Amino acid sequence: MDTLMIKVDEGTMPVHTDNGKIILIDQRKLPDAIEYFDATDIDQMCFAIVDMVVRGAPSIGVAAALSMAAHLQKLAGQQDSALTVRQFDEAKSKLDATRPTAVNLRWATSKVHMFACFLLNEKVDNSEFGKRIFEFAEHMLQDHLDRNRKLSDFGLSVVPQSARIITHCNAGSLAACGWGTALGVIRSAHAKGLKPSVFVDETRPRNQGSKLTMWELTQDGVPATLICDNMSGYLMQKGDVDMVITGADRIAANGDSANKIGTYPLAVLANHHAIPFYIAAPLSTFDPLIESGEEIPIEFRNKEEVLSLDGRTLTVNGAEALNPAFDVTPNQLIKGIITEEGVLRPPYKESIAAALKRNSEKATKI
Ligand code: MRU
């Protein structure tokens, strides 16, 4: 299985199917060990998403879609179709409740849910239902990879030669189901010979930067330097940073973008120093149903993640801590949003609506 999971040319795939099983690379264990986690069962998948065995907005969406498909296979074929639809709803709600901020999760489970109801309506037999619903979810894996490659190619237009880039969290192959979004752009720039180099925010409290982004960039041979989250101002003031690129977990209709906690201060600093700040995200990360970032639900995680590091307590006994997992960067601070429909520019309300329209027209044609 190791050789199937590790596809060096595309990055490490976080999710993989094997004869109907859903296997995750256990991101909690990286970079020390490459271990796998069987999340075929829906409860195991819910645990895996909450505990961040699998993380990153697009990856949790695809993983949840596969798990939902595997679960729905078992429900189809009952006499009472109203009951079946109710059970479909329950499965979706259960997965959706695991992490509130990344909209990709709901986007992916809604797609599987809609397709399952369509199949039910068509009265396809059980084995046909099982085959088609699983294939539908599996297709999302390949589709994400294709879209990430495409958006990364568009991103090349904004990356200058020898760019010194700051990135935050992990928006690589692990987070985005192949190639990456923010790291995808960097990976494509590296492959094109643009010689980018990267300052990687460690990204406390879970350290996705030091553990995952450093691992991915090192595998690719992209020059990467780890920094603490409070060092970017120093580097920008010295003139050592040409641009910032991060991923996103949910982008509102007006371009306000939620991403890993610490992204907003990075955008403020970048704007203060007239350094372009870009977001890279597939269209599945956009939530056109909400007007602005104020409506994005922010996940608060266990305070233990702040109070300790890898199981070791960092502070005094009984200390209080706050742990919002995401913050929202207002659209005014974002120079461009790199998507598979091109680099979107302000005014975002118009450019986002147009990109989503183009994308849905393509889907209808297929
Ligand atoms: O809490 P995480 O690790 O799931 O948060 C991930 C991020 O914030 C990423 O930057 C974001 O999902 C973009 S991933 C392509």
What does this structure look like?
The N terminus is likely disordered. This protein has 13 helices and 18 strands. The protein folds into two domains: 144 residues, Four Helix Bundle (Hemerythrin (Met), subunit A) (Up-down Bundle), CATH 1.20.120.420; 207 residues, 3-Layer(aba) Sandwich (Rossmann fold), CATH 3.40.50. It starts with a helix and ends with a helix. It is globular. It has 366 residues and is α/β, with parallel strands linked by helices. Helices cover 45% and strands 17% of the residues. Helix 2 packs antiparallel against helix 3 and helix 3 runs antiparallel to helix 4. The strands form five sheets. It has a seven-stranded mixed β-sheet, sandwiched between helices. The protein has a four-stranded mixed β-sheet with strand order 13-10-11-16, covered by helices on one side. The chain binds 5-S-methyl-1-O-phosphono-5-thio-D-ribulose (MRU).
Short description:
By secondary structure, this protein is an alpha/beta fold. It contains 13 helices and 18 strands. The chain is globular.
